[in-house]
Amino acid sequence: MQLCDKDMCTGCGACYNMCPIDAVDMKPDHQGFLYPDIDNFQCNNCGMCRRICPVLHPDHGNFVDPICYAAMAEDGIRIKSSSGGLFYLFASAILRNGGVVCGAAFKNPYTVEHICITEQDDLPKLQKSKYVQSNVGNIYRDIKIYLESGQKVLFSGCPCQVAGLNAYLIKTFENLYTVDLLCHGVPSQMMLRDYLDEKFGLENVKSIDFRDKSMGWGDSPRRLAIFLRNGDKCAVNLDEFQYGEAFLINLSLRQSCYSCDFCNFPRQGDLSIGDFWSIQRFDVNLFDDKGTSLIFVNNDKGAELLRKEQSRLKALTVVPRHYTAGNRISAEWKIHKARNRFLSLYPSLMFTKAVNYSLKEHYDIGIAGGWCHFNYGDEIAHYALYRVVESMGYSALMLQWPSDSSWEPLCYPPMFRENPYPDYAVSESFSKKSDLRMLNGQCDIFITGPGQYHNPVISHAISDMPLLNFVNNNRLKIAYCASWGHDPMMATEHDKANFSYYLQQFDAFSVRETCAKEYASQELSVEAEWVLDPVFICDPKILHNLADKAVNNLPESPFIFSYMLDNSSQNDKILRYYEEKFKLPLKVAAHDSYRKELNLPWSIEPLTDFMIEDWLAYFRHSEWIVTDSFHGMCMAILFQKPFIVIVRKAGGVSRYYSLLNPLGLNHRIVDGEHVHYDDKRLFEPIDYVPVSDILNRELRRSLKWLETVLAKKPVTKAYSLHTILDQRIEGLERNINNRIDNINEKYNQMYEDMRNLNRDEIDRIDNINEKYNQMFEDKRNLNRDEIDRIIQSGINEMNEYNIQLEQKINNLYNSCSYRLGRLLTWLPRKIRGGNRCIIEHGIKYTFVYFCKKVRNKLSP
């Protein structure tokens, strides 16, 4: 049996109460909100639960435009109530006449449930606001028994609960009175319990008062008081407690609360009551800081109930609807922008930490690397790393490199058909490298991801972000599965020295190639660990789920899949050979098969519009795999396919052997330069049982390494001269850039002034021309001498204008603003020139050239 959508379900409990065979249970979800759970084995499909669901079959029979009142009970009643004391008056009237009152009561400090009372002495249990969703349990069944016995019943609850009761009862009872609350929305009881446990320990909490009036009632402050068993009272403003803050800003509410028709008009109860927030803004006579209630009279029964208790009210005044601006009286409710992230963190993180991280945009880990670059392998490996650290309970942020880098940064991974990262998991854009330092306030740990991003050429292209030289020394720096692409690193002595310095600042360093361990130790003085690529240590379901989303049609018959980085004709020849060898059709993807169209020097038509989801699906469904890609080889092993790897020394081979040697699969490699296509070992089936055993052992070791280094406490390192100079240079660059911006602003203003000046002069010239044209028209019959005189007069006037204009331009060039601008831009121009000379000719040449220039300047 299918009830309403989960996002619409209010948890009213009508279906639970209605089921005649108790096949419906109310169970908490991941965040503690109650939802109906149907036992399909016990269910007889009678359909009663669905027929009475108030979400599927709403009843809006009350007044569309009810009268609005502001009301106050006597002071003695209000001091014991959350607002104006109206509920106390209505409940007392029912109890005096032998009736039953039903409302929400604390079972313990963190559990709220609906109960029925018949004694006046029990009424305080139902008074006061509870900012948490109450569990109605079987209360609707109990109420029906009271009603059928002829007793009057007053039911108080959230609008959805009133709707649930009315739906359950099916028919109208004249002896039932309902009061719905002006509901803000509800967090779950699990959230309240977790918060109290984190802050005080559940065993130490005696009771809680969400609306402590010891400092008054008005909008600010709303006070929360927690009473401890040792006699202490902890009272603060509601928004100063993470639980109260999350409630007030709509961070922790039930999903249905953000679009709840029961909060709209017509209302569900005979009466609607709540705090009349901000009433003092409209009428100070209705505010005495002891509590004012807002009442909507929704039908004739509600009007009768109010009329009978009117004499016991201190004040009752009809007010316009716009006075209620401080209350929620509409279906739609603004969702806090951080809610999705909060739900992703809680309950994996403690409630207070989840709230703080969400609101302050704080993260445990920042991941830097090629997660948003056009590369199938890099993108899937970084996504795997993201999922791994998230599964360990860490919150991760994917970091973008600065926009002034050689490689243009993207705010999404372009090779995925659907962005797998939630919006909150992607950092903002940074205009320049110095802006990256603000990430120190957002992240506690920084990880450089897998791939060749420690190759100096690639590192420089993304502003050397993988060196983490923007990270403060009190933050943890980790490299997972780093690679410089070649063995040894292809770098200048300057790059090698620079890399050595920054990589020594890492707290833990791991590499993708086994030979890189020795190189890192001997050449860079960095101790490194060899680990598996992240695609091996993430949950395999992640890759399969992505493959399930493929839209590129898979062949129905068996096929060979080839993913090739090298689009050479030699590889085309090799692929054709294996196609003929296996007698299977060949499907080929190039490194840029994500494009809609491709023009490659192949006799084979490559796949196009081919995204990572399709890429994974083709690996999973192929019979054989031929590739020259490291991650193509990884996918073949993960999906346990027979494969052949084509390698060339020019592209680096150590990464292939680093993985295949431990697995005993190095015979699957073909040398693309000295080809032996027909080595029979290439075509032998692979026994993946021992391969899986080795992989699982290495997987556990790699995961253990990552878990251990992530749990490290960062050791604050002393600032070296290198670091100090870096920061000073960044400071100078900021100052220079600011000055340049100021100069540009002045230049723009001067240019605009010049344009305005020129426009005035143009108008003047137009007037002169118009005058001359008119004179010529008037005097065209004059003799030639007179015409020459007029022309000479015009020439003289134009010459005078040219002299004046030249003087204005000279004044501009001699102005202090212009000379100051030239002076301030002298240093940046020299720095840029020197930097360009170093890049093109080296430091030695630059220094000699600089000395020569200085000597020429100083020589007489």
Q: Please, could you describe this protein's structure?
A:
The protein is built from 27 helices and 24 strands. By secondary structure, it is α/β, with parallel strands linked by helices. An 8-stranded mixed beta sheet has the order 5-4-6-7-11-12-3-13, sandwiched between helices. A 6-stranded parallel beta sheet has the order 15-14-16-17-18-19. Strands 21-20-22-23-24 form a 5-stranded parallel beta sheet, sandwiched between helices. The longest helix has 58 residues, at 721-778. The protein is globular. The protein starts with 13 loop residues before the first helix and ends with a helix.
In short:
The protein is built from 27 helices and 24 strands. An 8-stranded mixed beta sheet has the order 5-4-6-7-11-12-3-13, with helices on both faces. A 6-stranded parallel beta sheet has the order 15-14-16-17-18-19. The radius of gyration is 38 Å and the shape is globular.
Summarize the helices and strands and which ones pair or pack.
Layout: H1 14-18, E1 24-28, E2 34-38, H2 48-51, E3 67-73, H3 75-78, H4 86-96, E4 100-108, E5 111-117, H5 139-148, E6 153-157, H6 159-169, E7 176-181, H7 189-199, E8 205-212, E9 223-228, E10 233-237, H8 242-248, E11 271-275, E12 293-297, H9 300-309, E13 313-318, H10 339-345, H11 351-360, E14 363-368, H12 376-391, E15 396-399, E16 443-448, H13 456-461, E17 476-482, H14 493-503, E18 508-511, H15 514-523, E19 529-530, H16 534-537, H17 540-547, E20 560-564, H18 569-582, E21 586-590, H19 612-621, E22 624-627, H20 630-638, E23 643-647, H21 654-663, E24 669-671, H22 688-710, H23 721-778, H24 784-813, H25 816-824, H26 826-841, H27 843-858
Parallel strand pairs: 4-6, 6-7, 7-11, 14-15, 14-16, 16-17, 17-18, 18-19, 20-21, 20-22, 22-23, 23-24
Antiparallel strand pairs: 1-2, 3-12, 3-13, 4-5, 8-9, 9-10, 11-12
Helix pairs in contact: 10-11, 17-19, 23-25, 26-27
